[in-house]
Design brief:
This protein is mainly β.
């Protein structure tokens, strides 16, 4: 009987492993880190995460009337409180982190209904000591919150929420003196400039507009703006798209649109195509996608789902989507996954409605196939033209290649696009290391060691034979 039970348990564990959602690019093992609420149950929201100076930072929101906090971790397991409040209890949510001129910036907002406190922006040179960057509300008391930040053409931009005058856009060249950017045609029904992204030579922003439907604007210089898209671009027009809460660039530009009626959508800017077969990736209760996303061998994003719990989704190609794990990670109280970050592991923050339990941070080891796929190089012939192309998979195109160790044969070069070319002048075996990085703003890098053999040319007129020596090796 004991033998039977033992076999049953083995098969049960094996079945669970085989049925657990996974993808061909990634392997995972989930673990919760930091404990519930990072040690304080009143920490109910993980609103954003950022990797800066080798630390992972977590912006922690709390129940209305309790000020927001900043935690950080060096190893991802032990989390320390590094900033407790911003002088106002009503500033209870942190929206975004951003690095600018060697400093870490953070935006805060009053999410109470109605809001009473002007939002603020803070910064730090070491992640521990924080000072306010600019006046409250940046000089406008109606700016009750500041949202996403983005660097563009040497200046830091930020959008505000202003329910009286409409959302405002500000920028600074020094992090202290902020100037409002006038945007002709942007109506006051756009109560927040929520998302910002630099992509393709443009600065883009998306709005919160619950009256007329959300809008997307863009500029080549940060001064002159054009409205690029609004809900009317969709067929049929869908005014229930009330907010573009995230814009991000991969090989194309994407944004996520909030829709409390039929579910949120991930929209591709190339042809205004709403990705996913139906709203909410098949669940209309997924009304909101996360402000943070991670691009590592594909796209990871979270959802807000107040019915069955927030969800984590993955797509390797922006066409096929699969859910990772259970709704709410098995707890219906975990209503949203807003925050994601990558530092060796994929980190996610689960916000909760259970003030007695506190929010949670989970992590999962990711191994993915971003890297140079050439295992070996064709040998070359002294005095003869040589050309071969390095190929890479995963990450975000376009790729940038460079030589980081060793030397190429005299007369040859490696182009930034990965073409190894030239006319080798000397015989021998040449070893060198090539690094490739992708083009996502939080770049990934990987390296490969190569050996290239240059042989003497044949003088008999007999056609030479190309040999592919198995000498390539991964460094990592």
């Amino acid at each position: 009987m004991k033998k039977f039970i033992g076999k049953f348990l083995v098969y049960l564990i094996l079945a669970i492993f085989l049925l657990w959602p996974f993808d061909s690019r990634a392997s995972f093992l989930w673990q919760q880190v930091g404990g519930n609420g990072l040690g304080d149950p009143s920490n109910t929201i993980v609103s954003t995460m950022e990797v800066w100076n080798n630390y992972i930072y977590a912006g922690i929101g709390r129940v209305s009337g309790s000020h927001a906090r900043i935690y950080r971790s060096l190893d991802g397991s032990t989390w320390n409180l590094v900033h407790d409040g911003f002088g106002h209890n009503n500033l209870n949510i942190i929206i975004d982190f951003a690095s600018f001129q060697g400093k870490l910036y953070v935006t805060t907002t009053d999410e109470a209904v109605p809001p009473v406190q002007a939002g603020e922006i803070w910064r730090s040179t070491d992640g521990v000591t924080w000072t306010q960057a600019g006046a409250e509300g940046l000089g406008n008391a109606n700016n009750v919150g500041f949202y996403k930040m983005e660097e563009f053409n040497g200046q830091l931009y930020v959008g505000s929420r202003n329910e009286t005058q409409g959302g405002k856009l500000y920028r600074t060249a020094d992090g202290t003196n902020w100037n409002e950017v006038a945007i002709a045609g942007l109506t006051a029904t756009n109560t927040a400039i929520w998302s910002l992204e630099s992509f393709g030579g443009y600065l883009w922003f998306g709005t919160l507009n619950q009256a007329d439907g959300t809008e997307v604007w863009r500029s080549t210089n940060g001064t002159n703006w054009e409205k690029f898209w609004d809900y009317a671009e969709l067929i049929p027009p869908l005014p229930q798209y009330t907010n573009v809460n995230n814009i991000f660039g991969s090989s194309l530009l994407y944004w996520t649109a909030v829709n409390a009626v039929t579910g949120a959508h991930l929209i591709e800017v190339h042809d205004i195509f709403a990705l996913g077969t139906v709203g909410g990736l098949g669940d209309a209760n997924n009304i909101w996608f996360s402000e943070d996303v991670v691009l590592q061998g594909g796209l990871y994003l979270g959802t807000r789902n107040e019915t069955t719990g927030g969800e984590l989704w993955y797509t390797p190609d922006f066409e096929n989507f699969s859910q990772i794990g259970l709704d709410g990670f098995g707890n219906i109280d975990n209503y949203a996954i807003y925050a994601l970050a990558f530092k060796d592991y994929l980190y996610i923050g689960l916000s909760t409605v259970n003030g007695a339990k506190g929010a949670e941070i989970w992590r999962r080891l990711i191994t993915y196939d971003f890297g140079i796929t050439n295992k070996t190089l064709p040998q070359g012939t002294q005095g003869q033209s040589y050309s071969t192309q390095l190929e890479t998979t995963g990450g975000t195109k376009p790729y940038l290649y460079r030589l980081v160790k060793g030397a190429l044969p005299q007369g040859m070069e490696l182009s930034p696009t990965g073409e190894l070319k030239g006319t080798p002048q000397k015989l021998g075996d040449f070893q060198f290391v090539v690094e490739v990085q992708d083009s996502f703003k939080k770049v990934s890098k990987t390296q490969r060691l190569f050996s290239l053999k240059i042989v003497a040319g044949l003088s008999t007129g007999v056609e030479s034979i190309t040999i592919l020596p198995k000498t390539g090796a991964d460094l990592y």
